[in-house]
Specification:
This protein is α/β, with parallel strands linked by helices and about 650 residues long. The protein is about 35% helix and about 10% strand. It contains 21 helices and 15 strands. A hairpin with a 6-residue loop joins strand 9 and strand 10. Helix 1 runs antiparallel to helix 11, helix 15 packs parallel to helix 21 and helix 17 runs parallel beside helix 18. The termini are far apart.
């Protein structure tokens, strides 16, 4: 330990470590039967996170998105992220993190989020930190944090109108992992593989592996075939810093290197912090049942905070009196919070400023007409296939896509699905909304129907016509951007990423389209843990759209059904239709049969005063079926989505017997 090396930070490290040890001991004595997945043996994680944020703040980072694991969240939240101690203890003792009359169920203490700011005395501006909520499935929060941090960073850059902006200038993503989960969960590889892709990079995530060298009860020799838990990252050329968690000053140096690398190269970096777990997987477990030799060594060791404290005192960098004062004052505040927890009344879910522009959960919907002036529809449709002078379009696209669309628009009849979708996109762009269309082959479309982008036959340059609407430029209106994202070949991580996008910016229409409806199967953990239940658990609304091509038309038993029944089972929509006495459903499941209906659904997603996930069982055969077309008038002024389309061939409904 170098006595000249930033002594003020050593005092900060001691304070964080001491507080972490005190709260862990406090909870073990007061609530020994609570599974808190403690940080004992890995306390240096708090120093590591704090030093990362500090280093980032020095380099201009204004916001941090932090994805925490179960392990350590209970002590990290109050120690570093200012979570009210009385509310934390209220939650741990069995009450909700929300008020008793809240419409939200809450979540286990290991998953709760927090919005906070950290102010360092030697840095002028505070750092905004968003601790992410988490679903229990291991590593599922990794791509969600990536999507949220990228979208937050882009949003800040737009507000600054910085001409020299590079992705990652404003927001730093920090993601915690367990050693066994990082090595074992496939979503980790999926997320790492897309971390450097143009439409998914967030400027680099700093990944922290809390490597306590055991997974539940399983040793490393049985949880991975590699030497290091971090070796999965080698395929993505991500650098790894291995550091001993028993030396907080070395952990801080690892943080400095990681942040410097990230800021220089805007790539992911991994810190593999080797540590140990003082107790079992949770506080109810007896670890010596399965790791007797390891726990003989662990039980004989002094705690990391105590070792560091003694080292500082021996070097003359900290007085014994100051060390005791830090611990005693924190213990006193915990005892006071424990008493106050019985009477504390938590507020509702925390919201960022942009979400405060919309209604909270439980509000009644304001259904506005989503139709658009027919002249605007026509012009938008024309703009959607307008070619650039610098792009040579494939002759078949011109013959079978561009020319037929222009004719249908001229006639005002026979509008097909792709045209209706393009008009929905284009009219929203005209109104200033952004759209992110993501999934495998979405630019062309699985069924070669969309062609949202043209690829030059000579240079392979891509051109998105709807991003170049001439009349918007002439009128100098602020047009939104259509981001067409041909994703990598995975589902779970991409859906998680798009969910993160949708939770950060409610005014960006986030859409994920499956290549075939059943492809969403691989993302079921995201659908269950986030999309269908996020608002219920955390009060977090999401307007994510999932387009799932559905239809039994010769595609075989798998590529036919989008499993509508599963989505209906996940929905809490009342079957009796009495919505006046029931809150809004958690998700909307739709099966539109006309292009006009699809047009209104897409526009309704961002025109409402709230956000809900939308599951669309999309068309396959209907995409080009002439009888499943619409007129411009069906999308004109005063029109909107109709939950049920009546059968116009039936004159007397009373005569129907089945």
């Amino acid at each position: 330990m170098d006595a000249s090396a930033t002594p003020p930070r050593y005092e900060r490290f001691h304070e964080l470590l001491a507080k972490t040890e005190v709260i862990e001991t406090f909870l073990q004595k007061k609530l020994p039967n609570v599974k808190r997945y403690g940080l004992e043996g890995s306390e240096s994680i708090v120093v590591l996170i704090d030093q990362i944020i500090y280093e980032g703040a020095q380099l201009g980072i204004s916001d941090v998105v932090a994805g925490l694991t179960h392990r350590g969240r209970v002590s990290i939240l109050p120690t570093l992220f200012n979570y009210p101690k009385d509310e934390l203890l209220r939650k741990i003792t069995g009450s909700s993190e929300f008020a008793d009359d809240s419409p939200h169920t809450g979540d286990i203490i290991l998953d709760v989020p927090k919005l906070t700011t950290i102010q360092y005395s030697d840095i002028d501006l505070p750092v905004n930190v968003e601790v992410m909520w988490n679903a229990c499935h291991l590593e599922s929060g990794m791509p969600v944090s990536m999507g949220k941090s990228r979208t937050k960073d882009i949003g800040i850059s737009r507000s600054k109108m910085d001409p020299d902006y590079i992705i990652g200038d404003n927001v730093l993503s920090v993601s915690l992992h367990g050693d066994s989960g990082f090595a074992g969960q496939g979503i980790v590889a999926e997320s790492l593989s897309m971390s450097g892709l143009a439409h998914f990079t967030n400027g680099g995530t700093i990944h922290i592996i809390n490597n306590n060298q055991v997974g539940y009860t399983t040793p490393p020799s049985h949880t991975r075939t590699t030497r290091y838990a971090s070796d999965i990252a080698k395929f993505a050329d991500i650098p790894v810093i291995h550091v001993n968690g028993e030396h907080p000053e070395e952990v801080a140096q690892a943080a400095r290197i990681a942040v410097a690398y990230r800021q220089r190269f805007r790539k992911d970096v991994i810190i593999d912090m080797w540590s140990f777990r003082k107790r079992g997987h949770n506080e109810m477990d007896e670890p010596s049942f399965t790791q007797p030799a390891m726990y003989k060594v662990i039980n004989a060791r002094k705690s990391i905070p105590t070792q560091f404290e003694e080292k500082l005192i021996s070097k003359g960098l900290l007085s014994k009196n100051k060390a005791d004062t830090v611990r005693q004052e924190w213990l006193n505040s915990l005892n006071e919070a424990y008493i106050a927890s019985a009477e504390c009344r938590p507020a509702g879910p925390e919201q960022s400023h942009i979400w405060k522009l919309l209604s909270r959960s439980g509000s009644r919907p304001i259904e506005k007409a989503t139709g658009v002036d027919e002249n605007t529809l026509y012009q938008t449709g024309v703009d959607s296939v307008k070619q650039s002078e610098n792009i040579k379009v494939h002759p078949r696209i011109e013959r079978f896509h561009i020319n037929p669309r222009l004719k249908r628009l001229q006639d005002g009849q026979g509008i097909d699905w792709a045209t209706a979708e393009a008009m929905a996109f284009g009219t929203l762009l005209r109104e200033g909304y952004n759209i992110r269309l993501s999934g495998q082959d979405v630019g062309r479309g699985t069924f070669s129907h969309r062609h949202a982008m043209f690829v030059c036959q000579e240079s392979e340059q891509m051109y998105v016509p709807l991003n170049h609407m001439e009349d918007c430029k002439q009128q100098q209106t602020q047009q939104g951007k259509l981001e067409v994202v041909n994703s990598n070949l995975c589902e779970e991580a991409v859906v998680g990423f798009e969910y993160g996008v949708s939770t950060e910016d409610p005014f960006t229409l986030a859409i994920w389209e499956a290549q075939f409806g059943d492809f969403y199967n691989n993302s079921q953990a995201i659908v269950d843990g986030y999309i269908a239940s996020g608002e219920t658990k955390w009060g977090q609304q999401s307007g994510l759209v999932m387009l799932l091509p559905h239809g039994f038309d010769g595609g075989g038993p798998d590529h036919s059904s989008c499993r509508i029944e599963r989505h209906l089972m996940l929905s809490n929509d009342p079957v009796d239709g009495r919505t006046h006495s029931h809150p809004l459903p958690n998700i909307y499941v739709t099966y539109p049969t006309t292009p006009a209906q699809f047009f209104h659904l897409l526009r309704r997603q961002v025109k409402r005063n709230f956000r809900k996930p939308l599951i669309v069982a999309g068309p396959k055969t209907l995409l080009r079926l002439s009888s499943a077309s619409s007129s411009l008038s069906e999308m004109g002024p005063g029109t909107q989505f109709r939950p049920v389309l009546d059968d116009s061939t039936i004159s007397d409904p009373q005569m129907i017997k089945r």
